[in-house]
Write a structure and sequence with these properties.
By secondary structure, this protein is α+β, with helices and mostly antiparallel strands. It has a single domain, classed as Cyclic Phosphodiesterase, Chain: A, CATH 3.90.1140.10. It is about 25% helix and about 35% strand. It contains four helices and nine strands; from the N terminus they run βαββαββαβαβββ. A hairpin with a 7-residue loop joins strand 4 and strand 5. Helix 2 packs across helix 3. The longest helix is centred in the middle third of the chain and has 17 residues.
Amino acid sequence: MSDEPARVRAFLAVPLPEVVRSCLREALAALASIHGVRWVPPENLHLTLKFLGDVEEKKLAGMEEDLRELANTHLPFVIGLGEGGVFPSWRRPRTIWIGLSRGEKELNALAQGIEAVCRRWGFPTEARPFHGHVTLGRVKEARAARSLKQRLEAALPATSDVWTAGEFQLLRSDLTPSGARYTPMATISLRRSPSREGERP
């Protein structure tokens, strides 16, 4: 029997409500004919806050308490999806995403708090600035870039339902031959009501 501690591939993310997931499912169906792109299955769509990588389960269990303390300093906030885009550029797209029309400031603040918690637990600091987005697909062939911008603009809804984000999740990512499978390990709720500090008795 191996004495190696159990490890999992994990990340932190804000889940999408089904109504938003359904909207994006229709958009992905309209984009499916673009060859050379590996589209994300609708059930895997989410707003990533921090990718943790390969981590000992015991470490995640210990960090969870700190994440819950952090969450208690953030109120639920409204999120709306916005326009589509790519990383790093339209000339050489690698990642296809949809950004935010509402909630970017609050999501950034939450991500910065999570970054600070992760740093205390020995995770490397992300070098790139945080950019809230939902990854839709990853480009595998250069020919996919030819009409990508026009197709993306046509497929994505002009407006999207907004929703109140009241939690984020710690998820396990298992890589399988058919793609990644995500399993929630913990759901962490944001503070539900304003602080009582300073209120009259």
